Amino acid sequence: MTMTNKHSSGATAEFHRVFHSAPFISSLGLQLDQAASGECRTSLAIVDMHLQQDGFVHAGVQATVADHTAGAAAATLLGDGRMVLTAEFKINLLRPARGERLACVARVLKAGSTLIVVESEVFCDTEDDSRLVAKATVTLCVLESHSPAT
């Protein structure tokens, strides 16, 4: 995966930190496919642990994919010493998700100095088809970076 970015090296470093340092995201299996300034694309190979009791992809999995991909898209725009943290998100589950893979595209709608608003679309892919299954709007706070407590 290559990230194209017209912004600072801080944005590139923060983007990689956001995407690759979250243990929950790693254990979920979310993969980074592509990133550019203000945009991120991810995918998730669906396995049994992602399913709810009726065999559909759990709403929590879809929400996590939409939220984390949005955060990564926002992080592509950050300056040195800045980070993002989700303040609010709303997700519409448009149809049951059953297939082999989730694909998410997140695009920044508005990048402000304190808030960034991102739209995420989650698609469920089968061998023959790709259908939009969820759409989320994510608001992220822009904060000063800090070192986590040890």
Could you characterize what this model shows?
The chain contains 3 helices and 7 strands. By secondary structure, the chain is an alpha+beta fold. α1 packs antiparallel against α3 (59-75). The longest helix has 17 residues, at 59-75. The mean pLDDT is 91.
Number of helices: 3
Q: How far apart are the termini?
A: 31 Å
Radius of gyration: 15 Å
Question: What structural class results from the helix and strand content?
Answer: alpha+beta
DSSP strand tally = 7
Mean pLDDT over all positions: 91
Share of helix, binned? 10-25%
Q: What does the overall shape look like? A: elongated
Largest sheet: 7 strands, mixed
Strand order of the largest sheet: 1-2-3-5-6-7-4
SSE pattern, N- to C-terminal: EHHEEHEEEE
Strand content: 35-45%
- Uncertain runs: none
Offer a quick outline of the entry.
The chain is an alpha+beta fold. Helices cover 23% and strands 43% of the residues.
Note the topology.
Layout: E1 3-4, H1 9-20, H2 23-28, E2 31-36, E3 39-45, H3 59-75, E4 82-93, E5 101-111, E6 115-125, E7 130-144
Parallel strand pairs: 1-2
Antiparallel strand pairs: 2-3, 3-5, 4-7, 5-6, 6-7
